Amino acid sequence: MLQYFAESRWYTIVGATAFYAVTSYWLLYAADEHDLITNADFIYWLAVTASTVGYGDLSPVTPAGKLVVALYVIPLGLSIFAMVIGRIAAWVSLTWKKGLLGMNSLMLDEHILVIGWNEQRTMLLLDLILQERDAMPERPDIVLCVKADITNPMPGVIEFVKVDSFNKDEDMDRACVSTARTILIDNPQDDVTMTTALYCTKRNPDAHQVAYFDDDSLVSLLQDHCPKVECTPSVAIEMLVKAAFDPGSSMLHHDLLSIEEGQAQFSVKIPESSHAISVAKLFINLKRKHDAIFIGYAPNGLVKEMVVNPPLGVTLNPGDTLFYIAERRINAINWSSLDAD
């Protein structure tokens, strides 16, 4: 019987509670305890009695009423109360455990979805994403989706989903792949990254998608099929050569990529409500008003057509994405002031 009640359904508990309340009412009525069964007073008294709070402002006065309370109301009420609390505790524990193991199905949108697990590299990636997010006016949720046999590496900080495949709808729907704002793909195997990027493009063509490859030859192959995907190949060799001929280059690039050390590189899109602006005015006013340095732009946000260090006479239009260097991200830009003489 104990096992039955421990594993009982919620409708069983509700039924037992209703039976307990009705029978307690009639027993108290039969014992002439009319003060205890008056409208809301009965519900109030039964709740504080069954939960052992026992304020003492209401109590039985007849001998029969005291026997009913001592032999029926209190013992049965304590049993039901303990059963309810136990089930609630078990449900909370199970929900927390499922979240830790990545078994829950999420209900999110406009979130950042990180797909893949590379141990310390993924942990560093998540740390940097959290720092970048904290500097944003809105704080999107962060979801880590993996196939690896791990638990949530940051419980309470990020959401976590464990799947069998990055290409199955029922698995990826749990991570809300179709409603993500940004999708970052970084797997140990480049072929998994390739197939995952193709799948995510099909499920969410409007998301900003970034994929990391160790093999540079796969970048052009993916972009032939998915031109909107931003691919980031390994540049370790290039950095070695650059640092050899231009000492300090590796530290410079590290500084521009890190948001913890000095200046960093950021981007912003010219709003559609703004006017066209020349590079000359933007460069001068961005430095004057925000102490930031304009370094390039992507027409209509197309990173494949990015222009670095454009001539001063070039005109920038609404919808273009600007890239700049600053100590921190500029969240509020007065675009009309940047066009001033």
Automatic annotation (TrEMBL):
Keyword Transmembrane helix recorded: yes
Domain Potassium channel: 19-92
Record GO biological process: monoatomic ion transmembrane transport
Keywords per UniProt: Ion channel, Ion transport, Membrane, Transmembrane, Transmembrane helix, Transport
Pfam families (UniProt xref): Ion_trans_2
Ion transport keyword on record: yes
Record-annotated membrane-spanning stretches: 12-30, 42-58, 70-94
Listed name of the protein: Potassium channel protein
